[in-house]
Each structure stands twice: as C-alpha cells, then as structure tokens.
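Re: [ENG-882] Designed sequences occasionally contain unexpected residues at chain ends

Forwarding the minimal case from QA. Structure tokens:
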C-alpha cells in the first residue's frame, strides 16, 4: 500500500474546518453597496461603517458608554439589510437601505407597537476619523464644534448645555467643512439628542410613546463630498419643503400683509412707549419697528407702518395659594393664569403635575402647572380677539410655546402624545397668525412652528438667560420693572466669560438656523438680556456684528428713563444692522464660510446677491481681495449679480 502523504493528513481536516467556519466569517459582516457608498454592518457589536467611494472617507461608529445592543439575526436582500436586535430588554428590528437617488442610508426601527419601551439609543454616533472634523449642532442658531475641542475646559454652564444636548432642528452632523455626514430624524417628536463630550459626538435617543414602542422610527444619513454644514442645512431645508413644513415670509405675507413689515425691523420691548418716542423714531428715519410688551397701537404707529403687539403666556397656571391670585386682575387677558388649576394641567406618568414657571415670594417658591395644549386654543379665542381690538395690535408673541418640546400628557381626561401636543400648538398658531392676522412670534423657535411663526425671540442666544442667571445676580431678576411699574435697581450687568463663551464666540458659532430659515423667520436676541443692558459696550458691538453677518434683528428693552441715554447708540445699530437687513429682507441665506483659520472673519451671502464680511478680530484688520481693508470689529457689504 502506498503511504498517505503527511500533507494530505494535515490539509484534509483544515479544508473541512474552513468549510465549517466560512459561513460564520461571511455573516459576521454584511455589506451593502452602490456606486457611491459601501455599508458594512458588524453583527458582533451592532456597529456599522459607511465608506463614501467618491472621497474615500470611511465613517465609523463608537458606542462609548451607551447601552449595549445585541444582534440575533441578520437577513440581506439586495441593498436592504434587516437586523433583529435587543437593547435593555427591548426587542426590535433595524432595516438599512442604501438610497438610489442620492448618497444616503435610511434606517427604520420597528417593533411590536405594544412592546414596553422607555427609551432606545440606536444607531450609535459616528466619529470623525481625525482631528480635522467638526460637530454640527443645531442648538438655537447653531454651533460648529471642532472634534479636537476640550469640552472639559468650557465654563460649567456651557458644559451643562452640551450635556443637555438640546436642539432646535432634528438633525446633526460631522464635517471637515467640505466632506461630511448628516443624520436627520424623520420621526422627531419622540426623540432627543444624546451627547458624548470626548470626542464631541451626538446621536438620537428614541423615547417610548406612553412607554410603548408605538410606531416605526425613521432616520436618514446623508453623505457629502462638498459643502459641509451649509450643504447639510440646505438639505434639511429641501426636506422641509418636501413634507410641506416650510413657508417663506413672502408666502405668509400673502395671508397677512403685515408680515411684510417685519424683515429689517428693530425690536423694542417697551410696555408703554410714549407717542413722542414713536415720533422720534419716525423723524430719525427708522422705517421698520416691532414694539412689544403691551404698547397700544395708534394712528401714528399705523401711519408709520410699525408693528405693535404684546406678549402672552397661555402655558402657566398659578396654583390656588399663589398670593398674586388674590390681587385684582390688572388686565382681562391674564385671566387664564388664574383658572384651570389643576384640571387643565399636564400630568406626568405618576399623576403629578408637570412643573412650569417657578416664582419666589418671600421664603416660598410657587410652582405653576403647565396648561395642556388641549385647552389653549379655546383660551385664545376667548381672550385674544378682544385684547387686539382694545389695544389695536397687529403682532402677538406667544411666549414659551416653541421653547417647549411636545409634552406627553398622562391625564385620563386629556391624554395626548407629544406629536398631538405639537399639532394642537400649530392649530393655535394658525388661528392667531392667519385667523386673527397677527404677526406671530414665539420663543426659541423650533422647526415645527415656523410654518406660522414669523419671528423668534431668543434664537440668537445660544445659552439663554436661565443658564447665566448667576451673571445677573446684582439685579433682582431679569425683569426691569416691579409690580408697580417702577424701574428696578441693578439694571446693568457686566458680561462674564461664562455669558460670552457660547453667545459671542465666533469660533464656535455657525448660522445653521439662518441657512435654513432666513427667508421664513426673523431671528432676534432675548428681551431680558438686551445689548443696552450691558455695562461693557464692546459686547454690544459684537452683537451688532453677528446681526450683520446673519441679517437678524437687534432687540432692546427700554422705558422713558433708559431711552435718552441709549438713543444714539441704538440709532447707530439701526442704521447699520437694520439698513443691511432691509437690503436682504425676505431673502434666503445661500452661503456662509470662514475666511480665516481662527474663524474670526466670516462671510455670508444672500439670495439677491448681497454679501457681507465681518471681522470679529479685536486687533487684526482683514482685506477682502479687490476691496478695502476691514478694520478690527468692522464689516463690509456689497452686491454682486444675483446667484453668483
């Protein structure tokens, strides 16, 4: 018998072993691909990578300290991958698809609608492959945070803002200013952002609908080789148009012609502006003014074409023991603050009331209940029309509404989902803006309200007044008037590093909101921390520069004592900021870019060809090629052919 070669004895079992292992090796990583993207899913850790074949850049995920997700089954059909997953006791499916018409990956999360779920964090965050990237974060106006940024070195209030991970549009991204990936939540009402600080990263957390999975959650990743954060904002704008959630100021003005008076206006918060000041504004050539706080309209304001309105808060209801309820009602429109507690208040799962505004009186703090959105429209119909007629108003500010996310109300009498909460607010907005023909404003405007909201107070203040209350401790609160209408002491305050760090930091700010909504909503700063309240006028100068760069409206809070000393400085702001705002009124912001490595020189371009370059540097001048030098803390604006 011929001896069996040793090599056959060795390789025979190895071949059998390879045959047995090969299926597992193949299934450990599933691949989807088309002409522009390659997607690889790992069943070992539920992470995936996407390679953009146009640029060669690979985007990878990290789980960080987020909940672990286990994979039980993977099924691939062409360019669709169905994965069965489990996270923290929640069993669900993820469906991945590569889109054919653009460089995009869609993700659907599915489960039994009745399945128990508090929250679910999936997919995990992408991270930039090197230190050249930036986190794109649409918090109010917007931030562009380098991934090499040391968040731990930020002031505590700013670190808290990052950990809170708020958002005013339901998308985020990563970019090196050219290439990038954008994540868009298409079912955004039961969703929050989750932040990781080193490196800076964001992802979505999906909330249960009354602690159930409820419905399919959808999101899409878009991949870019050019355009960076500008392309992301424009992609989101097109998405809103596609679902019917985008309306321009011009479209709003067709329903309510008063909206046309808004772009380029200066906003003055003044409870009772005297006629002689209104005449002074007219004589000084101030063409557009929005007077808020309760000043009555008049023949003079109508002739001047000014907008006049008041703030209203349909949200907060005082508890029965609040001392203010015992005093005579100063104004009929405030009746809704005294009625409806607790029957109209939003309830939490445990039956307790969702807390609203907190008001200290003596040694006790009284907490309002938050009115359910079910009741707001009825209150508006009951109180607002008579108030408009009495005060001759053409503008209305519904405080808090767009600062609040949708509220899940567990009350057995008026149980509503977060999505229904938003739908009811939009019905309220439609009634006030279109039914009552009021130029509608709200606070920190979110994407869902901008179909009806025409101006949003506070969108320019990245870190709002509540976050830097400690910086105002010399003043007895952010309001300048006491209950008798007398001016309080401590009106002025010095801005600190904490106050300025996010609000006036040209290195970190980006006009994401304006790139989407400039021709839809007029943005302002906050009335309770206006520039004329600053002791350091340098901060006022910087605020003017941001208003010029974004073509947004300046805002000031005044009374008869404050107007004389602030008049000349305010008029200087109006002649610079509002004059440029008029030139680009109702125009989209088409481009924005940083012209220097330190980002202190920035350029914005608008749809009619106007361009502005702002130099935030306190020391260095900057020369635009072919134009004059821009001095420190200066700007230059010019118009080119439209669309160039």
């Amino acid at each position: 018998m011929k001896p069996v070669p040793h090599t056959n004895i060795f390789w025979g079992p190895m071949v059998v072993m390879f045959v047995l292992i090969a299926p597992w090796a193949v299934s450990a990583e599933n691949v989807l691909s088309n002409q522009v993207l390659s997607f690889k899913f790992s069943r070992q850790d539920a992470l995936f990578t996407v390679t953009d074949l146009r640029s060669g850049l690979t985007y990878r995920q990290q789980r960080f300290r987020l909940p672990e997700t286990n994979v039980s089954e993977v099924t691939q059909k062409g360019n669709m991958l169905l994965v069965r997953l489990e996270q923290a006791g929640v069993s669900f499916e993820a469906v991945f698809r590569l889109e054919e018409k653009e460089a995009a990956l869609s993700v659907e999360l599915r489960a039994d609608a009745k399945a128990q779920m508090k929250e679910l964090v999936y997919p995990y965050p992408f991270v930039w492959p090197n230190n050249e990237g930036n986190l794109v974060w649409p918090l109010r106006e917007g931030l562009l945070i380098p991934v090499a940024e040391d968040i731990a070195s930020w002031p505590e209030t700013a670190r808290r803002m990052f950990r809170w991970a708020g958002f005013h549009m339901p998308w985020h991204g990563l970019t090196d200013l050219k290439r990038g990936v954008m994540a868009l939540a298409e079912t955004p009402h039961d969703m929050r952002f989750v932040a990781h600080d080193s490196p800076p990263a964001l992802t979505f957390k999906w909330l249960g609908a009354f602690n159930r999975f409820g419905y399919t959650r959808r999101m899409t990743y878009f991949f870019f080789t050019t355009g960076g954060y500008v392309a992301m904002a424009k992609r989101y704008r097109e998405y809103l148009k596609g679902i019917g959630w985008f309306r321009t100021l011009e479209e709003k003005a067709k329903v309510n012609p008063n909206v046309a008076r808004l772009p380029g206006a200066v906003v003055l918060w003044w409870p009772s502006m005297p006629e002689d000041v209104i005449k002074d504004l007219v004589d000084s050539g101030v063409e557009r003014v929005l007077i808020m706080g309760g000043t009555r309209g008049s023949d003079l304001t109508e002739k001047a074409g000014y907008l006049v309105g008041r703030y209203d808060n349909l949200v907060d209801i005082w508890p029965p023991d609040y001392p203010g309820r015992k005093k005579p009602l100063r104004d009929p429109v405030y009746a809704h603050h005294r009625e409806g507690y607790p029957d109209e208040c939003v309830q939490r799962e445990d039956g307790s009331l969702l807390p609203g505004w907190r008001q200290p009186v003596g040694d006790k703090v009284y907490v309002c209940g938050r009115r359910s959105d079910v009741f707001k429209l009825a209150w508006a119909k009951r109180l607002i029309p008579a108030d408009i007629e009495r005060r001759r108003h053409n503008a209305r500010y519904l405080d808090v509404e767009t600062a609040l996310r949708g509220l899940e109300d567990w009350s057995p009498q008026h149980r509503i989902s977060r999505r229904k909460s938003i739908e009811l607010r939009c019905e309220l907005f439609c009634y006030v803006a279109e039914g009552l023909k009021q130029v509608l404003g709200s606070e920190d405007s979110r994407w869902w309200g901008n179909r009806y909201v025409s101006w949003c107070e506070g969108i320019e203040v990245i870190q709002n007044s509540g976050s830097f209350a400690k910086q105002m401790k010399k003043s007895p609160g952010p309001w300048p008037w006491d209950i008798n209408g007398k001016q309080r002491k401590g009106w002025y305050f010095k801005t600190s590093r904490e106050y300025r760090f996010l609000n006036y930091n040209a290195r970190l700010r980006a006009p994401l909101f304006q790139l989407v909504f400039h021709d839809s909503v007029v943005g302002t700063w906050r009335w309770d921390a206006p520039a004329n309240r600053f002791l350091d006028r340098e901060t006022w100068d910087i605020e003017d520069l941001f208003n010029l760069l974004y073509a947004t409206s300046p805002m000031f809070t005044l009374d008869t004592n404050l107007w004389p000393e602030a008049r000349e400085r305010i008029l200087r702001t109006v002649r610079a900021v509002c004059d440029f705002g008029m030139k680009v009124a109702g125009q989209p912001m088409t481009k924005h870019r940083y012209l220097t490595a330190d980002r202190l020189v920035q350029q914005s371009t608008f749809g009619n060809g106007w361009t502005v370059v702002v130099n935030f540097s306190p020391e260095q001048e900057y020369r635009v090629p072919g134009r004059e030098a821009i001095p420190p803390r200066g700007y230059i604006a010019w118009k080119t052919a439209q669309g160039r």
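QA comment: On inspection the terminal residues look reasonable. Confidence is low (pLDDT under 50) at residues 1-26, 467-488. Proposing we downgrade this to a documentation issue.
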